[in-house]
């Protein structure tokens, strides 16, 4: 049966990448995976945040990497979504690991570009080791060289390449990076590619699929395709 993966937590129901969005997803047993975005604070703490700048989803400004964890925790990360979530804080990854352990798989996207967030992979791997969760996560990224570095650092944790578009020889790229998963923007994913990847031993994640008809179509392709969605309820209603 296709895995239902909650995108940035249950982000159709609560502010993305917050503990409330995570808890909503954890409270639904049929949601078997949660995707989160992780980057480093100024003092090197892995935190949940998607954008490199703070303006869209907080009352702060500037770059995530320029504020310490304590400074980030002072920001309101919920009012932009709905006033009911005023005072929601930016969580540290460690909080999410503690909440999800033994309950759900985490797809941790390592957010970086160029030379941003040096040491991100190492710090995330350290937390996974501390919590005994290396087998409970995927580490994925648009930075495919970073994923190759993760594989060199750790042979145990599962990794994946995030792809927007349809590059040639993508399965060969997965092998070159030592990746286990293909995480592809769903308009570019085809039944043929999904099935070929699965037949060759790779996991496949389709993101971010919110339209019920698109969800229905992808579910018919192969039962092992994981579907990442902002609205898990729409997917679960189709089962």
Describe the structure.
- The protein has 239 residues and is α/β, with parallel strands linked by helices.
- 31% of the residues lie in helices and 21% in strands.
- It contains 9 helices and 9 strands.
- It has helices at residues 19-26, 69-72, 93-100, 120-131, 144-153, 170-177, 191-199, 212-221, 232-236; strands spanning 4-7, 31-40, 46-48, 105-110, 137-141, 158-163, 181-185, 203-207, 225-229.
- It has an 8-stranded parallel β-barrel, surrounded by 6 helices.
- It is globular.
Summarize the SSE layout with pairings:
Layout: E1 4-7, H1 19-26, E2 31-40, E3 46-48, H2 69-72, H3 93-100, E4 105-110, H4 120-131, E5 137-141, H5 144-153, E6 158-163, H6 170-177, E7 181-185, H7 191-199, E8 203-207, H8 212-221, E9 225-229, H9 232-236
Parallel strand pairs: 1-2, 1-9, 2-4, 4-5, 5-6, 6-7, 7-8, 8-9
Antiparallel strand pairs: 2-3
Helix pairs in contact: 1-3, 3-4
